[in-house]
Amino acid sequence: MPFFTEVSVDQILFALLNGTIYGLLLFMVSAGLTLIFGMMGVLNFAHASFYMLGAYFAYTLEPLTGFWMAIILAPILVAGIGILVERFILRHVHEHGHAHELLVTFGLAVVIAEIIKMVYGKFAVDYRVPVELNFAAFSLSGIDYPFYRLLMGGIAIVMFVAIYALLTKTRVGIVVRSAIYRPQMVEALGHNVPVVFMGVFGIGAALAGLAGAVAGAFYTTNPNMALELGVMVFVVVVVGGLGSMGGAMAASLLIGITNSLAVGSDFRIADLMAFVGMGGWADDIGGLLTMRMSSLAATLPFFIMLLVLVLRPSGLMGEKE
Amino acid sequence: MKFAPLFLLISVAVLIVLPWLVSGSMLNAAVQMLIAALFAMAFGLLCGQAGMLSFGHAAYFGIGAFAAVHAMNAFGGEGLLPTPLLPLVGGATGLVGGLLAGYFSTKRTGVYFAMITLALAELLHALAPHLKTVFGGEAGISSFRMPAWGIGFGGLNDVYFLTLVWTLVCIGLLYLFSKTPLGRLALGLRENAHRLRFLGYNTNALGTLIFAVSAMFAGVAGALQSINIEAANYVVLESHISTAVVLNSYIGGVRVFLGPAIGGAVMTFFGHVTSDLTRVWLLYQGIIFVLVMMFLPRGLMGELVERARNPSAEGVAQTLGTLLMRLASLAIAAFGAVFTIEFLQRLLSPEYRADITEGNWPDITLFSYDWAPLSIAPWAIGLGLFGLGIALATLINRRVAARKEAQA
Amino acid sequence: MALVLGAATAAQAEPLKLALVETLSGPQASTGLLYRDAVKYQIGKINEAGGFGGAPIELLEYDNQGGPVGAADRVRAAISDGADVILQGSSSAVAGQVTEDVRKHNLRNPGDEVLYINLGSEAMELTGAKCHYYHFRTSPNAAIRVNTLLDGMSEAGVLGDKVYAMNQNYSWGIDVQDNTAAAADRLGFEMVEKTLHDVNKIQDFSPYVQRVQAAGADTVITGNWSNDLLLLMKAAGSAGLDVRFGTAFLDQPGNIGNAGAVAEGHFLSASFNPEVNPEKTDAFMEDYKSVTGHYPSYVEPTAVFGMMLLQGALKQVEPTEDGLNASDLAAALENASVETPMGTLSMRGADHQAILPMIVQEVSRNAKHKSDGTEFGFVPVKVISAADAEQPVQDSCQMKRPG
Q: If we measure between CA atoms, which residue out of C16, C28, C8 comes closest to residue C310?
């Protein structure tokens, strides 16, 4: 009973490559969220909206400044918005508890989506990969691998290394990390903790904005981008461990690769039961048991999330609660 | 607070005679408001009283809805489950679902609890399209309300009274529940679960039971909706239904018993009225969420109760005066904001952009007047009124603060 | 004297109210608003020609907030506001709910029926298991789309031998898949594989592209819309995959703009193309633009033609003192037919499915009308007449007729 359709080394390689790049995209978007949660305990519903804003800003700037400047400026603009949000909106709600923070960011996500629809229209906009970057990097058994995808993966890896270095090796990073555990002490030592929080929020938003600016050209840039990616980002952050950068990377790759492999698989639970001779019975029951893995690919992340939450809630690499 | 029972009695009386007071489409909205209120009350039990923020309550609402639809088709309104008793099925399945889900969810607390509930609901939502016999595919499962107990249940009035009776009974039961030992322990879970454990209580079991009761009433609400629209569709399992009930409850105020119900009713009414008036009603809804969370953190009912409990030393007349002036300034600001937003929406719309020719920007009609977008008039009115309202509100706040300081 | 009195009574009868119950806000609003433009346009034309019973027709608009639950609520509101006809088209899920609500209302209120005119929801069951006397579909359905697409592509010699069916996992996608499979023997191709994927959840289609490549397909037939179509095509394009796409919704605004050159050479089967019958079509396009501000595209022409059919049927109906008698209108609609710029559009009485011409078209640089401000547009490859496009009545439709 074949688990995969015509398995070949090339295809598995391709699946792994695809999954890795998709996972790196997820990492780019969730890095900011896990940073913000780790630092401030705020689960920011509007994070995917920052992703969307990054894409739209880059789309607007590109005809004026060219592609490369656009993807540098767009995250800066999004960071600015993030800082404004933290200073004028979130700061009022910190004292009322996490639920209020969450709900404010949810309201914000709705407001951002509606404003984007008002200004840019309800259909997708044509923000495309620039012609000079639109070529194939290499070819594997007849399928081209676009260079831009590798570029996206590269940017994600650079992002990871940069944040990791920033947090562990620099003074700023040490201050930020201490501010999670002992904000009063850090304040007593003379650091301006509210400014630190503002900066962290801004950087988190900038990361999401960069992800949007880069990925929006390759995928589509439309007003529902935030909704499409929103829940997946939460899954990554939870599975990886709230606040852990390494965990976010591991979880993103896990989800990306399992998704890629699952789509290529026609495996069904009934096939597994055939091993113990209950295949016919499972076929009769139907329903969940006869669904193909390829159709279920989008539900896998939630299974993983549930498993992690019940068995090891602090996530793959988070700290124990 | 002494007036509370009187208010309640008047409200119930108004609700009973509502069909003769309002139009058909308003009555329709009233049914939706009741269902939203009951769903929010069920959520409020879990979140407000037991302090467990659930992000996947749509799952139990949906389970109840589908159970009721299948029961409607199976029993045809007779036998064991005549139409008026159908919500019992919703409650029963919600209870079972809640026990199962609650057992897993309550193993963790805080954010992790919320994430588990989210994951469970999203999992159910992702699986539903594939389980076509249960969830019916994207057209859902459809059924037919059958007459029972001599009532036709064909028209809106019958549906309204059925919904009203069930909602009032369930809210009453929730109130009584809050007075039982288990209901009291829920408060304990919220305040100090650690201490409860030390006192010997099994907090996991407690949490599971409360989760199950909350899910039961959510299931009743789902069943009522199925009876109302004679169908159930898996879109009811979407995450925005879960977030909507959280928002409604917090806007009403989760710490006050009836807060969630008021929040659910008000926001449903708001959506009903504005969605037909303006294209950007979701924007207004989002703005209201943000503003209420920022400035009325206890929710509408919560702030009301708080003011009633701690009246300022100023006396009723002055308090009322301040309140009226605040409302007036906010109304001015709101009008200015709405004007600007509506004007911008029309200015940026694709129809208008197609009308623009070289240097000629046609007038935009708003509130029956024509405004030229390039002139200062509409901007002055919109932004000006908004600024004026905010300035007045700030002034009033400063005056009140100064008075308080003078007295202190 | 009698004529004057008669005219006076007719003029004082209840004006005809049409209710548009559509998705006008939220994530899926883009399509709903197009239906609104098309309906308003044609109602304007009907009123210019005198309206109904001497009075202008009123359009009531209801926002179903994107889902069947909101739609059920709004249908009830519309009926209680006096609507005689419900119009809708953008979503098959909503259509499923509306048609059931209308059917149940009519069952409970004999003599006070309302009509449901489905301007664009193409799931088969609406004229199949869910068909009923007061529902009319004026747009194509899955069988018509797929079979005309395959016929056109086959005649143009671009279908190839190996076809891959890639669809969304819900009734519409399954309908497309089933119809593709059923046509395999007739047209002499092999359906090498079929895949059903989650609707609007997938960002990364490269694993699916890999499957297409592994199956060695020449053509991919897909009913995907919105992101699912765009991302699939872009993924295929960037993988350098040499397949031709046959689609149902490639002309959705934003698709060509976003896909650019990737879309070139792919096919579409739709009920409108601006280059067919240019004398009539150009006049229609310019008039539409002068009223709404943009050229008609995607669902708009089909919706306008559907409203033209309604207009023709209304001319056959005498208003009564209570306004419109829905059963009279239904009887008139059953046999209605109208000349559109594309050809003859008529209604089939057996299942209330419209019979209309379809145009198989290709994305090309040589198009006279460009899409989304790009250099590409749709060029007609084959015009399939209404009679040739017609597909058989489904066995599952057991329509109960009044009287």
A: C16
The set of residues, in sequence order, having a beta carbon less than 8 Å from that of B311 and lying 6+ positions away, is B319
Q: Which residues on chain A are in Cβ contact (under 8 Å) with C249?
A: none
- H helices, E strands: number in chain A: 15, 2
Are A100 and B115 a contacting pair at CB < 8 A?
A: no
pLDDT digits (tens, 9 = 90+) for A23-81: 998 998 898 898 888 777 778 889 999 999 999 999 999 999 989 999 999 999 999 99
In a domain? residue B5? no
**Alpha carbon distances (Å) from A285 to B129, C169, C298:** 17, 20, 42
Query: Which one-letter amino acid corresponds to residue B154?
Result: G
pLDDT score of C11 more than 50 = no
Contacts of A226 (CB under 8 A, 6+ apart): A48, A49, A51, A52, A109, A112, A113
What's the rounded mean pLDDT across residues B203-211? 92
pLDDT, position A108: 93
Nearest CB among B154, B353, B354 relative to C108 is that of B154
What the block records as the tokens of B313 is 């030393």
Asked if residue A45 is part of any domain, the answer here is yes
A vs C: CB pairs below 8 A: 117
Per CB-CB distance under 8 Å, the chain C contacts of B282 are 25-26
HSE (side-chain half, CA atoms, 13 Å) at C48: 7
% of chain C beyond a pLDDT of 70: 97
Question: Strand, coil or helix: what is C137?
Answer: strand
Which chain A residues contact residue B287 at CB under 8 A?
Answer: 107, 111
Minimum distance, in Å, between the CA of residue C74 and any CA atom of chain B: 8
pLDDT band at B150 (very low <50, low <70, confident <90, very high): confident
Q: Residue C301: what are its φ and ψ, rounded to 5°?
A: -60, -40
**Closest CA in chain A for residue B132:** A287
| Contact by Cβ (8 Å): B214, B39 | no
In a domain, A178, yes or no: yes
Q: Report the distance separating Cα B70 and Cα A94, nearest Å.
A: 45
| Beta carbons within 10 angstroms of residue B129's beta carbon | 22
- Residue B405: C-alpha distances to residues B308, B309, B311, B324 (Å): 21, 21, 16, 22
Q: Does A148 touch chain C (CB under 8 A)?
A: yes
**What is the total count of domains within chain B?**
2
pLDDT one-digit tens code per residue, B238-261: 888 998 999 999 999 999 999 999
Indicate the number of domains in chain A. 1
C305 within 8 A of C273, measured Cβ to Cβ:
no
Nearest CB to C214: which of A6, A222, A229? A6
Task: Give the pLDDT band of residue C12 (cuts 50, 70, 90).
Answer: low
Rounded to two decimals, the pTM is: 0.88
State the average pLDDT over residues B199-216: 92
The whole-angstrom distance between C297's CA and the closest CA on chain A is 13
Contacts of C227 in chain A (CB under 8 A): 124, 220, 222, 224, 228
* Residue B233 forms contact with C (CB below 8 Å): yes
This model of the complex carries an ipTM of 0.86
Check whether residue B267 and residue B324 sit in a common domain: no
CA distance linking residue B274 with residue B281, whole number of Å: 6
Q: Do A263 and C254 touch (CB under 8 A)?
A: no
Tell me which residue in B283, B295, B297 faces A114 most closely, judged by beta carbons: B283
Domain containing B289 equals 11-298
Q: Which chain B residues touch A321 with a CB distance below 8 Å?
A: 112
Question: Does A291 reside within a domain?
Answer: no
Residue B252 and residue B315 in one domain: no
Query: Chain B contact for C73, CB < 8 A?
Result: yes
> d(Cα A302, Cα A231) in Å, to the nearest integer?
10
CATH number of the domain at B161, please. 1.10.3470
